[in-house]
Inverse folding.
């Protein structure tokens, strides 16, 4: 009965005369339901498709045969015990392979136990001519064939990697040889060293066209070394960034100052993360660092401890008019003295509520 209703709705909303181009599928896990042979889901016109994984495999079986014109595909796998036997190689791969002009692909996994397989990125090679945006969240350390497929996608303009964990071995050499001449935006957040290495490679090979670079690493010695290499590369090549995020300690402040004071600097969004034990020596540096903030800066996010006094001096020294400020160490007390005093003093007569002003904007 439910399946008949679903088919009826598809005929109503997605016939050949329909102007609806977006479809979101979010169904609860339940017993697998077979698709009636020859059923037409009327989804050929769908351009934007969002799927939250379910055990209803009939959807994938029909979609990969009928929905072949998807341009924006978003897939989420939740932490649902009913999904443990779901075969992403068979169903998700078939859906990706069948597309004629996929431009944007987002893949998210919130299940740390029954996640995607390491080969899940392999079908991306079939979309290398059209794919311009790739976002991965919670995907395991990829296999060699997945890495090879990724490096073939040389038309990428945007790459975002979040919490993609480490795992047993694939060679890092293919990543070091990768070429992404069109890449404009790259973000790597709390992910394995492979992805940090990719970011470092991108900067060295394609620095001048980058608009966004954000690197928020795990705190360990290997990632600390990579963070230093990345900020040195940015200081050397001076891309015209609008968004920049990097892990920082007192030793890297000189590179940051060099980046911020170049005449070409147009950074609007700046995020500073903790590198090792950055508090050592940083308190004396904050007030002077305020002088180097560009006038274009609108959003400042800080994950390094800074006391109220140092932040007050920092804000008084900056010529930027911030639209938002976030200091992670203050998050529970920013409405209390002395932090609220600092924020109120900076905002002065600007009609902005503290709760609206104090938030991360990344």
């Amino acid at each position: 009965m439910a399946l008949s209703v679903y088919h009826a709705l598809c005929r109503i909303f997605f016939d050949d005369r329909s102007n609806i181009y977006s479809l979101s599928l979010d169904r609860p896990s339940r017993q697998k339901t077979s698709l009636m042979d020859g059923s037409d889901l009327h989804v050929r016109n769908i351009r934007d498709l969002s799927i939250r994984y379910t055990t209803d495999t009939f959807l994938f079986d029909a979609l990969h045969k009928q929905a072949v014109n998807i341009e924006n595909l978003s897939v989420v796998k939740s932490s649902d015990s009913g999904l443990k036997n779901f075969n992403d190689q068979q169903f998700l791969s078939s859906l990706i392979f069948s597309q004629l002009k996929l431009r944007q692909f987002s893949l998210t996994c919130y299940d740390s136990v029954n996640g995607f397989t390491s080969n899940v990125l392999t079908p991306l090679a079939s979309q290398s001519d059209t794919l311009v945006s790739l976002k991965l969240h919670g995907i395991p350390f990829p296999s060699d064939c997945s890495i090879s497929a990724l490096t073939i996608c040389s038309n990428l303009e945007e790459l975002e990697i979040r919490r993609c964990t480490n795992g047993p071995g694939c060679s890092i050499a293919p990543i070091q040889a990768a070429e992404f001449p069109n890449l404009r935006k790259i973000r790597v957040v709390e992910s394995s060293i492979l992805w940090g290495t990719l970011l470092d490679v991108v900067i060295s090979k394609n620095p001048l066209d980058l608009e966004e670079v954000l690197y928020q690493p795990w705190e360990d010695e290997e990632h600390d070394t990579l963070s230093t290499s990345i900020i040195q590369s940015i200081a050397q090549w001076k891309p015209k960034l609008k968004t920049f995020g990097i892990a920082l300690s007192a030793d890297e402040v000189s590179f940051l100052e060099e980046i911020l004071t170049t005449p070409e600097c147009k950074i609007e969004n700046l995020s500073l993360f903790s590198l090792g034990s950055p508090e050592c020596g940083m308190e004396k540096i904050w007030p002077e660092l305020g002088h180097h903030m560009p006038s274009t800066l609108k959003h400042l996010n800080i994950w390094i401890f800074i006391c109220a006094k140092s932040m007050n001096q920092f804000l008084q020294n900056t010529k930027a008019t911030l639209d938002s400020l976030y200091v992670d160490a203050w998050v529970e007390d920013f409405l209390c003295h002395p932090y609220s005093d600092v924020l109120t003093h900076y905002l002065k007569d600007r009609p902005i509520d503290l709760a609206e002003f104090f938030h991360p904007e990344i």
About this structure: The CA atoms of residues 159 and 186 lie 5 Å apart. The chain has a mean pLDDT of 86. The radius of gyration is 23 Å.
